[in-house]
Amino acid sequence: MKHKFLLLILSVLNIHSCTEMDSIHERYLDGEIVYSGKLDSLQVRPGYYRAQIDGQTTFLGNSKKVYVEFEDRKESFQIDEQLDDIFSFTIENLDEQTYEFGIQTEDEYGNLSIPQIVAGKSVGNTFISNQESRKLSEYTIKSDGHTYANFAGNSESPNVLYTTLNYQLDNEAFKFDTIFFNQKEIKLEEFIPRSIIKTTSYVKSDNHGIDTIALNQVEYELPNLPYEELDKRFISLVEMPSDISGAYNGAKPSEYLFDANSSWEGNDEQTFLSSPGTFPHHFTIDLGVKSTLRKVKLNMPNHLEFNDNNITSLQIWGRESLDGAETSSNTDESFMSSGWKLLKEENIDGENSSSASFMIDPNLGSFRYIRYRVISTVTNISSQLTELTFFGQNSESILLDKSLFSMPAMQSDNPGTFYSAEPSEYLYDNDSVWKYNDKYGYHSGENAVPGHFTIDLGVYTQLRNVELHFRSSLSYSGNTPTTLEIWGRNNLNDAEILPIFTSSGNSVTSTPASSESLENAEWIKLSSTNINGAYLSSYEFEVEPNEMVRYLKIRYVETVGGSGCQLIEVTFKGNGAIKP
Q1: Domain edges within the chain
Q2: Among 429, 575, 410, 567, CA closest to 495
C-alpha cells in the first residue's frame, strides 16, 4: 500500500514538473525570437516646444525605423542609410513639460528591439520668461579713445549664447554687432551721444538644448562722449609758406571746407582741391581753440561718381603754436625737427568710400594747430575734400594776439589820451606793471564816467575771457572801474552813436552815451560785471558764449571815484581768431 501511494505522489510531481517546463519554453515553440539592433546611450535634448532624441548607432545593426511612444502619441522616424556615430530625430509640437519616451527600433523584417525608456523635456514660454538678458553694465573709454560697452558676466544669464547690438552711427547708418558669452566688452563705433542702443540676448533651450531663442529686446541710452565736435566757426586755414592752397580749378577751401556741408555735386569750387602732381603735400589748420584732439572726420567726393582724388593715406600732425613751425622739407624728419608731433597715420579706402573717420590718442596732448598731410590718393594726381571735421575735449580759449589790436577813432569814443596817456602804444603792450606815470595806459580824464572806447581785435572771435590791469590800488584806486560793460560788433558799418565826444583840457564836456544808443546801433552786450575796484589792481572774468565779433566797446559805467577811468593793460581770450 505504501508503495502504491509513493508511486502516485511521484507521478503527480512528474506531471507538474513537465507542465512548468512547457510553460517556460512555450514562447519559443514557434521558433526563436529575433530582436533588431537598438540605439544606445539615449539622450533627450530640449527644444522650444519640441525635443530631439540622440542615440549612438554602435548597436543599431540593420534597423530601418525607430518608434517613439509617449502619452497618447506614437510616431515613427526613418533611419538614414548612411549613418554617423549619432542618429538624431526631433519630436515636434510638444507641450512645455517632462516626458518619458518609449523607444523601439525595427529592422526590415519587422523585428523590434528591446524596449527602452528615456526621460526628457520640452521648454516653452515659461522657460523663456525665467531667462535674464545679459546686462550692459557700463561704458568705459580706453586710451585708444574709443568707447567700450561692458557687459555683466553670465551668472545671471547662464543660457545666453550671444547678444546682438543695434545703434545709429553719426553718419546716420546703423551698426549691428555681436558680443558672445565669453566676451566682456565690445568696442562701439562713432555713435550718436545720448541715442539708444538696442540689445537682444539669445539663449539656448536649457542644457544641451537644440534651439536658440531671442529674448525681449532691451534698450539702453548711449553715453555722452567726453569729446565734442569743435565749432567750425572758429576754424580757419593758416596758409603757411610750405602749405598747398587747395584752390586749384577755382576751389575755395577757406569758404567751404568748414561750412558743415559735405555734399558734392561735381562742383570743385565747394571743395579743397590740390594742384596736380605734388605728393606728399600738406596744409595747416587753426582750430581756434586749444584742444585735446580725439577724432578726425573727412568727407570726399562721392566715390561712385568720381574717386580719383580720394585720399588713401594721410597723417595728422599737431602743434601748440606756430613759433618755429615752418618746415624746410616735406619729410617726417623735417616736421619733427620743427616741433610738430605726429598724432595719427591712417590708411583709407578712398576708392570705395566717400568719408572716413578715425580716433586720436588723447594722451598725445593738446593742440591749437593741425597739419593735414596727404601721402597718397587713388590716382596720386590731386587730393580733394568736401568737408573736414574735428572733435576734441578740454578745449580752451586762445590768447588773442595783441600785435593785431588797434583803437579805431569813433565819434562818441573817449580816446583815453588825457594826462599824456598813450593807450594805442601801451594799453596792449603785454606790460601790466604800473609805472607811476599816466602815459602807460588809458586815461579818460575827468567828468568822464560813464564813458567808452573801441578796440579792434584784428580778428573775428567769440570773446570768452577778459583780464584788466589797473593803476595800483596802493597808489590810487579812484579811477578803477566798479561796473564795466563789454559790447561787441563784427563790423563798424552804421556803428556810430551820439553824442559826439568833446572835451576841454583834461575834462570831458560832452554828455555820456547811453546803453540804448549802443543797442540801437546793433552793438551786442557781451558782458556786464561788477568789480571791487577799491582794493584790486587787476581783475579777470569770463564772458558767456555769444556771437563772433571783431570790435569791442569797453564801457566803464561806474568807477571808485566816479570821475575818471584808468586802465594799464587789457588782455582778451576767445574762441577762434579768424583773420578778415
Answers
A1: 40-122, 127-221, 232-395, 402-578
A2: 410
